[in-house]
């Protein structure tokens, strides 16, 4: 939101207190359980009440942990409207606020004139505190607490396991607060009548029920086939909403038509697996048997969401049931799916992936809602849960481009296995993005296929939390556990979850408690490890059989109907099988989750357009980047910084921050959306960037110069992320998959930390195009460099990124054509780009090239730390202007007579500036040529050869500050040597030698002295001088 050129940052809507929010609290925060981070502090008046009220309440006999929360809510309700609670509570709270001590606050309620209430309070006397009436009211309070206890803990004894062996929360005991005896009640009280409190809907229109009926209704709602976990929510309105959705009488009933739809979906789900098992008995397919209800469940979520306005759903899911989802949810043609079981040759690019990892994107009419809907299943690796943040990023980007800021139309569905959901840390990292303004997707719907096993491991040995879904409690998700043998209960839960998401725009979890009929895959023997469970499974009927019997008994369908439906689907499968036999090739393209239909059509794949920037645009960007609007209270230090930026332009020598700003600013002005995300990226870890300026006098008033360049510019999103690499990098990758006409960048705090996101790097970024022919132009900025900051602040491990390049390390120069298209061809063929730039102009061109390239490639860029302010790491304006471009190699420019050169030293990154200074120190400026390899991969063979050829007599040396088993050495060595061995240019046949640190286990020393010694050693080896000649040298 812009106001007078100033960006006012808004808190996310979910952080704003809802209409019903606690005004104060009766208790201390710990008494309340988890405090809501967005609740405002109570006023001093309320606080005074709290302490006295808290102590008297706490000492009441009937108080316990969960009832205290209940009373807390009653109190809040009473504060808003004293008539909203039972008269007994009204009297009680009045007395508490008047300062009555424990045991004194309770008072028998006045006799109510309403006939119904009189019924209950017949035996009570009005104001006198006769023992009998006190007991009666006390019993009412107890019953209210009992109701509250069922709402809170009923799920703990719900009948959730279709096998009837385990308790889904791993605890077979009955919580004492669910027993009448806990309250001093007994069976003798069952026929007494009680007035229902306002915090329950079990009565429907009835206000009074017998205790027997109350308990029966509570049991059937909270302890039957659905376990509802929602009392951990800290928002009263949300709790009320859920209560209503489950407690109101008959709320879960389905119509006959709905039952039939459900039945048909169960047929599809069940018979699909059966068919595959029959045709390919020895193929792994990770079938859904034991959780066939997953298909109707997802469809119910999609139907309901679609009717509530969603028109794009992005699904992330693991192996289990994936083929079934592709067939029966996405409606990927069955013959295309079945052809994956053949051993046909792929007809297009890519190395492909196993069939249960593939993605799809399909748009079709949703029959139930009669609205079009796009459904994408994102391709994923075996690495469980890794796809979660990718899906979220994709959803965020889709909504961003569609202007769907509140995600009314774009939504994520994530599926999980029970073991993975509770075991993998990325789940929590992804949840933690939920409420962050630049990352929220306004609620995802999670479905857990909780088959109560992970490969061979029993849940009792794979998690420490009661439920596999407990991670969701941290971010305030309601959690609906449901026994899959009651498919109608599953449908209800799915509808409620979809409505919840629509209403509150927050995540929700559906825990499908099920079983796995076969082994981990169909070829595995489960009896080795789970003998008792599998004996039970053998005797358990598939849900289709159970439901078929049910609908016949209920008269919803007859035998003939059932038979017809089964035959119909059987025929569909047979026809598809026949068609699949006619398929002669498979196409990786059929499995793209993010097709960029028009992007490639318009472009020449062998032409890399220019990346220069017109001078007036450049001047405008620097002007804007160096100023703030009138009245903005800028920090004094930043005033100097901004002035300095302007001065650098005047001096024709601009620094890294301007190089970056020119790249972003020019792209934005050309209509390209730029997103830069990562830890502390707004200021920049090393304080060089300052893209978000903070007013020193007004909270949350910020100014983002690059978002104020021009009316028609594209949006610039620069956002500090949560302290996560795995989820945030995954998120940005997902974001980059949506629109190729954007520049999406993730920056690590230090490159060293990027390895906590290794799975995203290995499984998605480096290999995504090869496995799934999916391109991404994502840039990773990884601060890197040996500056004595120790083993965890020195190296982004460039060797690893280089090792993952798909390029051959052997070049036959006699056969290669180093012509005008060589660069483009290499870029086209590479899986990613690895670069280490040394000048502001070069980083600017590299970033711009990401967008001007006719295809998309991820870029891994080692970025500087001290170089950000190094007086030599500057660029003249001319290096940015039209005609200039990214320099893959920056040659030596200061040597006029190449024949004097005895050594030509190749290096990459910041070490270049150390070498320049040391070379000067030892007076070897005419004998040692220094060439910078700015793009390591794809390796610039053509330019390297040119550089070697310039100095045919010189020794070739590779200098690096990383240890010998690290850095680029092992990558460049075979490339140099094969190039020189096969070249016919002067100086061919030379081999390159190494100058740098010795091999090491640790990336860098933690000792400053050792660091300087090593650095000197490296410089002396590189320049071929004694170490002593570098005495007094300081880089
Ligand atoms: C990150 C990761 N670690 C290990 C594995 C190997 N693995 C494949 S499936 C599986 C068990 C998964 O259990 P669960 O999440 O409950 O799903 P289920 O197979 O029961 O549907 C394991 C350990 C993996 N795929 N990913
Ligand atoms: Mg499992």
Topology:
Elements: E1 2-3, E2 6-8, H1 29-32, H2 44-58, H3 65-80, H4 87-97, H5 115-120, H6 131-153, E3 193-195, E4 208-210, H7 211-222, E5 226-229, H8 236-247, H9 256-279, H10 294-307, E6 312-316, H11 322-328, H12 334-339, E7 360-366, E8 371-377, H13 387-402, E9 410-417, H14 418-423, H15 425-431, E10 444-450, E11 479-483, H16 487-504, E12 508-513, H17 531-538, H18 543-553, H19 559-582, H20 615-625, H21 636-650, H22 656-669, E13 673-678, E14 693-694, E15 701-703, E16 716-720, H23 726-736, E17 742-747, H24 758-765, H25 768-772, E18 779-783, H26 798-803, H27 822-829, E19 833-836, H28 840-852, E20 859-863, E21 889-890, E22 903-907, H29 911-921, E23 928-933, E24 935-937, H30 941-950, E25 955-963, H31 969-982, E26 992-997, H32 1008-1023
Parallel strand pairs: 6-8, 6-9, 9-10, 10-12, 11-12, 13-16, 13-17, 17-18, 18-20, 19-20, 22-23, 22-25, 25-26
Antiparallel strand pairs: 1-2, 2-15, 3-4, 5-11, 7-8, 14-15, 19-24, 21-23
Helix pairs in contact: 6-7, 9-18, 9-19, 10-16, 13-23, 15-23, 20-21, 20-22, 22-28, 23-24
Bound molecules: thiamine diphosphate and magnesium ion.
Magnesium ion is lined by residues 417-419, 451, 453-454.
Keywords: Glycolysis, Magnesium, Metal-binding, Mitochondrion, Oxidoreductase, Thiamine pyrophosphate, Transit peptide
GO biological process, one term: glycolytic process
Cofactor: Mg(2+); thiamine diphosphate
